[in-house]
Design a protein that fits this description.
The protein is mainly α. 47% of the residues lie in helices and 11% in strands. Helix 1 runs parallel beside helix 2, helix 5 runs parallel beside helix 6 and helix 6 packs across helix 7 (146-155). 20% of the residues are buried.
Length: 196
């Protein structure tokens, strides 16, 4: 790494984290610094800022930072907002739905249903939708494929999906969208919606 080259030349290094890609690389960097008699540090530029510490405390507590959400909503007014997968980091998703439903511009929650196989995730999504009671849309996402779509359509009342890779060529996130795949999925969802 470039850090080792600089350290060997006697230059102090402030390295953006991670210090190394693998543990042995980080050890090589530390050894080079010791041998050259110079300092090497990993950058933690925001780690001790009060707002950052508050965000981490809320994350550890499994809560939504409503102050940050207020600021976010204010910065993009008057647009509606989808709460994008962060709900999966909270401890109580039902309580999080209540919190988010109180923000009138949060119109949807994108969620995979959490950990587990598709049956477990489908059950969690169905519970969330029931809890939301039409106040906010539960948008199923995070790994929706043709097969998981069929399970979700058959076992839940959810009819809003974020399909991502499933409609991209080769199922690659960075590939172009395949219009045929979009049409097939849309037709399948529409057909299921009509049967509700």
């Amino acid at each position: 790494p470039q850090s080792i080259s600089l350290l060997r030349r006697g230059i102090h290094v402030l390295c953006e984290k991670p210090l190394g890609i693998i543990e042995s690389e980080a050890a090589q960097i530390e050894k080079a610094a010791a041998k050259a008699g110079v300092c090497v540090e990993a950058g933690y530029s925001f780690r001790r800022l009060p707002g950052w510490e508050r965000a981490h405390a809320l994350l550890r507590a499994g809560a939504i930072d409503t102050d940050a959400l207020d600021r976010l909503l204010e910065s993009c007014a008057p647009l509606p907002v989808t709460f994008h997968r962060a709900i999966e980091r909270v401890h109580d998703m039902a309580a999080a739905v209540e919190t988010l439903a109180a923000f009138s511009r949060v119109d949807a929650i994108l969620c995979s249903g959490g950990a587990g196989d598709i049956n477990r995730r489908a059950a969690a999504l169905a519970r969330l939708r029931a809890h939301a009671g039409g106040r906010i849309t539960i948008l199923a996402g995070g790994g929706v494929t043709d097969a998981t779509l069929e399970t979700l359509l058959a076992t839940t009342p959810i009819r809003d999906f974020h399909v991502g890779r499933a409609v991209r060529r080769g199922a690659r996130w960075d590939a172009p969208v395949d219009p045929g795949a979009v049409a097939r999925m849309a037709a399948r969802i529409s057909s299921a919606a009509c049967s509700l």
